Every structure is written in C-alpha cells, then in structure tokens.
TrEMBL record:
Coiled coil: none annotated. Residues 1-28 form the signal peptide. The keyword Disulfide bond applies. InterPro entries: Bifun_inhib/LTP/seed_sf (IPR036312), Bifunc_inhib/LTP/seed_store (IPR016140), Plant_nsLTP (IPR000528). GO terms for molecular function: lipid binding. One of its GO terms (biological process) is lipid transport. Keywords: Disulfide bond, Lipid-binding, Signal, Transport. Residues 36-121 form the Bifunctional inhibitor/plant lipid transfer protein/seed storage helical domain. Plant non-specific lipid-transfer proteins transfer phospholipids as well as galactolipids across membranes. May play a role in wax or cutin deposition in the cell walls of expanding epidermal cells and certain secretory tissues. This is Non-specific lipid-transfer protein. Belongs to the plant LTP family. Pfam families: Tryp_alpha_amyl (PF00234).
Length: 129
C-alpha cells in the first residue's frame, strides 16, 4: 500500500513538471530569468527530502537548489518562485519545515520560506541570508 502511494506521489510530481514545461516556452526570453517550469524541474529531486522520506537532500536536489539560487534575482522572481512552489506543493504531502533547511543542507545563501497553502508570497522581501 505504501509503495503504491509513493508511486502515485512520484508520478504526480513528474506529471506536474511535464505540464509546467509544456505551458512555458522552451527557451526563456533574454530578460526572463525566473521560470516556474525550470524551478519545478530543478527542485523535483528534492521531493524525497521535503516529503520526509530521506534524511538528507540528494546531490541532484542540491544541484537544483544551487541553480535556482542563481536565477532568483529580483523581488518579482522571489514572489514568482514562492507562488510557483506554493501551487506545486499544494498537491503533495510534505513537511513545510524542511523547505527552509534546503539552503543550509545544500550550502547556498538562498533561503526558501516554509511554504504552505496559507503562505502570503508577497511578504517575502528577501530569500537570502
């Protein structure tokens, strides 16, 4: 039973990534730095960690966190990343307290907020330490 639930969770995450990738242009415009589809695809390997299924984030997860850290530059990017993650995570079972731990565990200055359905993404002025 648990195996089936885990498979559904992973299949849902994969489907969400595919749908987001199809809904955006494959190549961002020169002035577009932040992309929800890219964010979701880079952070999908982190679902095991934020879903409390693994003790530490994987190397692939940390590589994605590092890449996302470099793409979030403006207040609009921060709000967009928060909204993107809020929407994507609303369909998954996860531990919100593990999201902010990703920066420390992966060694980046980007600090992701503890995102829940009630998170007001407009209040995050800075995602950096």
């Amino acid at each position: 039973m648990l195996k089936a639930a885990a498979m559904r969770t992973h299949l849902f995450a994969l489907l969400a990534v595919i749908l987001l990738l199809l809904s955006r242009p494959a190549v961002p415009s020169p002035d577009e730095k932040f992309s929800c589809a890219t964010t979701v695809s880079k952070l999908t390997p982190c679902t095991g960690y934020i879903g409390d299924k693994s003790k530490e984030p994987s190397k692939t997860c940390c590589d994605g966190v590092k890449e996302i850290s470099g793409s979030i530059k403006s207040k609009a990017d921060r709000k967009g990343a928060c909204e993107c993650l809020k929407k994507t995570l609303s369909r998954m079972k996860y531990d919100p307290s593990r999201i902010p731990l990703l920066s420390k565990k992966c060694g980046v200055s980007l600090v992701l907020p503890s995102i829940t359905n009630s998170t007001d993404c407009s209040t995050y002025e800075s995602f950096y330490l």
